[in-house]
Amino acid sequence: MSGDASSGPLPWRELLDAATEGHDRLVPHPGGPAIENLDVPRIRSWRPGEISAEWTVPESLTNLRGELFGGYYGVLADVVLSFTAMTVVDDAERFKTGQLQISYFRPASCTTIRIEGTVINRSRTAIHAEASLLREDGKLLAKATATFAIVAAS
Q1: How far apart, in Å, are the Cα atoms of 135 and each of 53, 77, 85, 131, 152?
Q2: What residues form DSSP beta bridges with 140?
Q3: Domain ranges in the chain?
C-alpha cells in the first residue's frame, strides 16, 4: 500500500478480513502512517485474486468544478491494487509497487465510487493487477494497472 507493503503485524488474509469487517483503525495501522491518515476505500469483499471496494468522494478532495482531484485516483488505485495483490501472496512474501498507470475517462463528483481489483498474473517474482473505478451507474471513471515486485520477507 502506498508502494510498500513491507511490514505488518497481521498475516495478509487476516488483514484483509479485518479491513472488510471495518476495522480500518487498527493501531498501529499495518499499512503505516500514510494509509492511516489517507481517506482510503473500504473493502466490501475479497477472494483470491479479487477485491471489491467502495469510496465516497468527499468535497474536500474536489476541484473548483466539484470533481475529484485527479491525483487522488492514484491513491485509490494504489491502495486497492495493493489490497488485490495481498490476496495472492504468502505471509512470508512482501511486495512493492513497481509501476502504476492510470487512464482517465470521466470525472467523479461527490458520489460513491466502486473499485474492482483483479490479479491478471502472478509469477514467482511479480504480480500484475488491474482496477476499474466505476460510478454508481456503472460507467467507467478510470482504469488502472500495476506491477508489483515480490520480495522475500526480511
Answers
A1: 12, 15, 23, 13, 37
A2: 134
A3: 4-152
- What's at 135, amino acid-wise? R
Which of 40-44, 85-89, 125-129 shows the lowest per-residue confidence on average (mean pLDDT)?
A: 40-44
- Whether residue 84 contacts residue 41, with contact meaning beta carbons closer than 8 Å, is answered with no
| 87 phi and psi angles, rounded to 5 deg | -70, -15
The size of the chain, in residues, is 154
Q: Measured between alpha carbons, how far is 21 from 49 in angstroms, rounded to an integer?
A: 19
**How far is it, in rounded angstroms, from Cα 118 to Cα 122?**
11
3-state secondary structure of 18: helix
pLDDT tens-digit series, residues 71-104:
999 999 999 999 999 999 998 899 999 999 999 9
Could you identify the residue written with the cell 526480511?
154
How far apart (Å, rounded) are the C-alpha atoms in residues 126 and 81?
13
- The dotted CATH code for 4-152 is 3.10.129.10
